[in-house]
Amino acid sequence: MDAAAEPIISVSHLSVQIERRPVLSDINLVIEPHRFEMVIGPNGAGKTTLLRIILGLMRPQSGSVRVFGLDPRRLRHRGRLLGYVPQRPLADPKFPATVGAVVLMGRYGQIGLFRRPGAEDRAAVRLALTRVGLLDLIDRPIGSLSGGQSQRVFIARALCAEPKLLLLDEPSIGLDEGAREQFYELLRRLQHDLELTVIMVTHDLSVVSLHTDRVVCLNRRLIAHQGLPLQAHALEDCYGCQVEALFHGHVPHRVVN
Known about the structure:
Blueprint (H helix, E strand, L loop, with lengths): L8 E10 L2 E11 L4 E5 L6 H8 L7 E6 L4 H4 L6 E4 L13 H6 L3 H4 L7 H13 L15 H13 L5 E5 L7 H17 L3 E5 L6 H4 L2 E6 L1 E6 L5 H8 L3 E6 L2 E6 L1
Parallel strand pairs: 3-7, 3-8, 5-6, 6-7
Antiparallel strand pairs: 1-2, 1-4, 8-9, 10-11
Helix pairs in contact: 5-6, 6-7
């Protein structure tokens, strides 16, 4: 296989237990470069655990995971490969920092311990904020922003490391319908312009058909990994209930009854 075509992520027979409770069972998954993939499934399906394994934050009980051909725990100390937006990027929404300072956190892997940020780091912050349309807010307190603006800041923080793989865990929680749509359009544009591979965990099935290349249906085991249109039986197996087909724009999608 040509090196340019090698998978970004390769998961083989992955199984994970937390406190002796099975969370993921015998997962086999391959994700190719430059894809926008959404991971869907009910609460407790193991979606966040899968992201944490890919990020090298957890160790599986069995099986193997390779990200860019390496054990993901080795990638944690390498800049410019992984970007991550967690469910709750700031524990305290009134965190006393400016937008620019929050985005600069994404450069810490490149800056290193006990070193001050340089001109290259400050330029990366400005570029990341420009890409998400918030450069004019660089000196604003992060706590003064709307939910949609805050999420753009956290995207900028992840982009500041110049990653090739961007992982997001429920990034649209708390956003209204208009802000969600703008957020997904921004992600899709960034994915295309920067040639990113994007993996996003979401419960928001209403946008899956418009913004994704492939869908990973997960419920402790891998139910399906497929392109569109989604098959009803896959969602029914994933969520354990019937679904009905709806239309969003010109593309059919399915929602859980």
